[in-house]
Structures are given as C-alpha cells and as structure tokens.
C-alpha cells in the first residue's frame, strides 16, 4: 500500500520545488498585506514542505578532525552508453579525467558486445581498480573505477527489470567506505509515445511503484551497514521529494546541500523544468565539502562531481 501511495504522490513530487516557490510568494503577499494569520499558515506550510529536504542537510563544523581525515573526490555520471561511439567515450572520459577524481561511478555502461570493457578501461589508465556488474544486460550496466583498492563486490538485481545496483568496499588510506552505485527504475514515459495522456500517466505510476519497491530493497541493504562509512551514488530516476528518494536517504545526507542551488537543477539537459534525479548520499562521519552538476552534451544527464572528507 505504501508503495502504491508513494507512486501516486511521485507526480506531485516532480512539482515539489515549484510548490515551495509558490508558497513563498503567497507568504510574502500575505505579509505585505498584513494578513498575519494567513501568513503564519503559509509559513507553517513552507516549513512542513521543507522538512523532507532539510532533514538531509549535514551540518559540518569547520576544521573538526581535519588532521585525521582523507579527501575523496567522486564523479557519478549516467553516460548513456557513451552513445555507442568512440568519439563520445573519448570526450566524456576526458571530461571526467579533467576533474581528477579518486572514484568514478558510471551508470548505463554499454554491453560488452557493443563496447568492450577493455575499450572503456583504456581511457582510464590511472584507475587500476575496476568493478562491473556481472550480468551483462543490453542496457543499464554499471561500472566503478577507483584509484583506491576495491573489495567485497556484490551485485544486486531487481526482479523483472534491467535496473540494478552494485556495492563494493573502498580502502581509502585504511578507512573502509561502502560504496553503492545505483540505477533505479526508469520512468519510461517515452516508451509509450503513442499513448494518450492517461496512458502516459499510468506508465509513470507503474514505474514509480516498481521504483518504490526497489528503493525498499536498496534501503534495507544500506541500513544493514551500521557503523560503516556509506556513500550512495547514481541515477535514482526520481526527485528529492519522492517516496523512493526519501526511503533510500533515510538517516543519510544529500551532497547537494553543499551547493544549495544544485537542489533545483535538472539532470535532464533536454527537459530543464524537471528537478534533479541524480543524487549522491552519504552517512556520518563523512562530510561533503563541495558538489557540482556539470553538463557536457552527448548524454541527457549532467555529471555529478563531489568532494568529501572521510574520517
């Protein structure tokens, strides 16, 4: 029942930031008109609507334990199968390498028969530790490249779906980090291009319900890692206000908060009105020092780039 309700509410979640903006404008109008009771109601509604986001804000005390921490730069990107073109692989790999990340998480790696693993690896010569999902799907494969040793790789597949996630332990100068590379259920509205509006909404809700089930599976795995440094990167295919995101992010922090305007940006370069659907989450005692979303063409997702402090 919770998954069904969350799926229906995901339509509203897409409008979450616009609802916030509208509520703020109404609040200002009522305050200027000195309608204090209505203004107070607007303020309470605004605070209530902000809570699902603010609860993932990580308060970092400057300079705390700085001497006993390691810096870690992470790139996470849905590369759209590199468009199955060597030119795209060349361009996007150069973009990623220009950031000098320690870890790269890729979603939508091409099938081995369409673009080999060795071909991709050849563009990242300074990343000796590489992990893949073991089941080669035609689409939606995953990959992790790391300058730090990887161990304990585990692949997780969702029933009746090409979507999946993988987890792996990263040894960051003696500190263990449990890293999740995630690709949750695709919305798939474009797959029913011939359907009317009701058909498209029905497809959206069906996929949102599947995504809610996947989120519960992923959340149970993440929260079994008590006492560990945990980071979750990837394409969630859902905005921060959705039930799926809130399920996965329970007890974790959103890297976007280190640069708050990134909360408002879309990961779809072709649909700028959509909220961000690619996310990086982390647990304490990790702290996020910076977060960027960058657009470089070829793929309809922006690249996530974040810098962390690992204690």
Write a structural description.
It is a single chain. With 311 residues, this protein is an alpha+beta fold. It has a single domain (54-310), classed as Deoxyribonuclease I, Chain A. Helix content is 32%, strand content 26%. It is built from seven helices and twelve strands. It has helices at residues 2-13, 16-32, 36-54, 86-98, 117-121, 197-222, 243-248, and strands at residues 70-78, 103-109, 129-132, 141-146, 150-157, 164-172, 175-183, 229-235, 253-254, 278-282, 287-294, 303-310. The strands form two sheets. The chain has a six-stranded mixed β-sheet, with no helix packed on it. Strands 5-6-7-8-10-9 form a six-stranded mixed β-sheet, with no helix packed on it. A hairpin with a 2-residue loop joins strand 6 (164-172) and strand 7 (175-183). The chain is globular, with a radius of gyration of 20 Å. It starts with a helix and ends with a strand. 37% of the residues are buried. The mean pLDDT is 88.
């Amino acid at each position: 029942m919770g998954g069904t309700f969350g799926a229906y509410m995901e339509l509203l979640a897409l409008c979450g930031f616009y609802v916030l903006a509208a509520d703020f404008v109404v609040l200002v109008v009522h305050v200027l008109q000195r309608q204090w009771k209505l203004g107070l109601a607007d303020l309470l509604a605004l605070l209530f609507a902000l809570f699902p986001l603010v609860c993932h804000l990580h308060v970092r005390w400057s300079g705390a334990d700085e001497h006993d921490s390691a810096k870690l730069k992470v790139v996470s990107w849905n590369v759209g199968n590199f468009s199955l073109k060597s030119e795209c692989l060349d361009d996007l790999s150069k973009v990623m390498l220009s950031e000098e990340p320690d870890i790269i998480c890729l979603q939508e790696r091409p099938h081995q028969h369409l673009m080999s693993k060795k071909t991709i690896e050849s563009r990242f010569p300074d990343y000796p530790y590489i992990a893949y999902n073991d089941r080669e799907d035609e689409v939606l494969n995953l990959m992790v490249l790391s300058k730090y040793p990887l161990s304990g790789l585990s692949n997780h597949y969702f029933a009746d779906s090409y979507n999946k996630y993988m987890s792996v332990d990263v040894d960051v100068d003696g500190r263990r980090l449990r890293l999740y590379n995630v690709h949750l259920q695709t919305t798939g509205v474009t797959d029913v291009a011939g359907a009317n509006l009701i058909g498209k909404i029905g497809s959206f809700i069906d996929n949102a319900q599947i995504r809610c089930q996947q989120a519960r599976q992923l959340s149970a795995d993440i929260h079994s890692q008590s006492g560990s440094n945990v980071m979750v990167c990837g394409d969630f295919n859902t905005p921060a206000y959705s039930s799926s995101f809130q399920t996965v992010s329970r007890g974790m922090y959103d890297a976007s908060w280190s640069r708050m305007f990134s909360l408002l940006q879309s990961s779809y370069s072709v649909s700028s009105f959509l909220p961000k659907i690619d996310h990086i989450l982390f647990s304490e005692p990790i702290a996020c020092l910076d977060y960027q979303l960058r657009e470089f063409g070829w793929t309809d997702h922006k690249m996530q780039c974040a810098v962390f402090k690992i204690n």
